[in-house]
Structures are given as C-alpha cells and as structure tokens.
C-alpha cells in the first residue's frame, strides 16, 4: 500500500468530492478513484459512498479515514525526524499577513532564506478574513493577524499564539498644533481631518469610536502609505493605527499621540494555524526567528 493512496482518501473525505480532491492534489480524477477502489478491495470494506453530488464516508469508512489521517500525521512526524537527523530544513513555507507586520516579516524571511536556502517561501499581504479563510483551506501555513476578544477564532478550527501586545495610537505632523501634546481626546480627534490605512482592525476601531463618541471627519481610506504621509505633512491630517506599525513603517516628520480615553480589551499581533495541522519544522524554525525579533521590539512599545 502506498502512502499516496491514504492521502487521496483523506482528501476526498475532507472535500466531499473526488474531483475536488484531485484538483487540490494536482492529480487526475482517475488516479484518485482507482486508488480508493484499490484500498476498498484490499481492505474488503466500502469506505466511501459515491453519487452525483460527491462522496461521503460510510459508517465504517469514517472510522478508517480517522485512522488514516492519524497515520499520515505520524508519517509527517517520521519525515521530520529523518529531516532533523540530516540537519537539513527543506520544503515550502506559505505566509500571509496583514499590512502592518510586513517589514518585520520581510527581514525575517530574507535571513531565513539565507540560512535555509532549500526552503521555498511564499508571502502575501491580505485582509484578516482572507488570511483566516486561506489558513482554514490549507492555502497558507502561517497567518499573521490582529487578535482581540471581538475576533472569535477558537471555534473555527484554528490554533493561535499571541506574539506582541499592541495598541491604537494617532499620528500627525510635527507642525500640527497637536504636536505639542502627548495625547489626543475624542473631541480633538473629531475636529481633525482623518486619513486611514485600509486595515480590518483600524476600520473596526474607528467604527467603534464613532459609535461611542460621534462621527469623525474621515476623508479617505487607502493602502497608499505615501498618500497618508503627504496628508499628514501637507494638510496636518491625523492618521490612526497600531503603535508597532509606526515603529516599523514610520511616517516622516510626524509625532505619535496616545488616546486620552479607555481603549478596548487587550489587542495582540498573533499568528494562526490550522488546529489539526501538525506544525512543521519549517514553521517552528520561522516562528522562533519572529519571536526573537519581536522580543527586541517589545521594549519600544
């Protein structure tokens, strides 16, 4: 029996479709179908009921597929152990991140690639919900997002780890009258021209702010940091964001202001993975590197 046959079986059970499983595994539908038939013949039991709408496990098949998934995880552990003995890290690492941590990840990825040139690394910038969806659908290995009590991910089949406690702050030009202050009140923010970076948590924060304190004059939301910088410098606009993002991607000639009102419950930069996905050596090595970098950043916040 080949390990690939078990992989085909588990993928069909996961997707509920032989054709979808074949697409995900980059093999032919015939290869998947014949492999499963071969297993059923070898075991003398029907594991899948096939119909026009898809394929679902039989009662016996569900138990067998669970065991097959456990066996595949053990096989992955075996490969990792062998890989560890050879002192060689290789394979693929797929990373997705919200915009803020990109510079933090950029240096880590470059250094990681130099140390482990055999690893193929993919990194994309996305919104938080897209990252969550891609991690759940196994299109991404590690997802870096903002975690807070209003984002309930524990019940989505995701493991998460809190990496860095962060908070929302405001930034404006050094020529603004606000530059002589250390804080900004809700009433002061409402009187300012506000420009925002297009980020899920920033949007949620400002929606919550306006629900509590009244409307703010938000001129636009953009992914263009240069546009935000020019608005602050040339028009004394105020922007709002997470404090660590201003450290790693500072806007020139600006000052940072704390909010003079109670903020929400603790907010963290965190990393998510699939709950049933066994963490690979590559993921662990990379996360250790990120944690090392973040430990140096913590004292600046």
From TrEMBL:
Signal peptide: none annotated. One of its GO terms (cellular component) is cytosol. Keywords: DNA-binding, Transcription, Transcription regulation. It comes from the Bacteria. Gene3D superfamilies: 3.40.190.290, Winged helix-like DNA-binding domain superfamily/Winged helix DNA-binding domain. GO terms for molecular function: DNA binding; DNA-binding transcription factor activity. This is HTH lysR-type domain-containing protein.
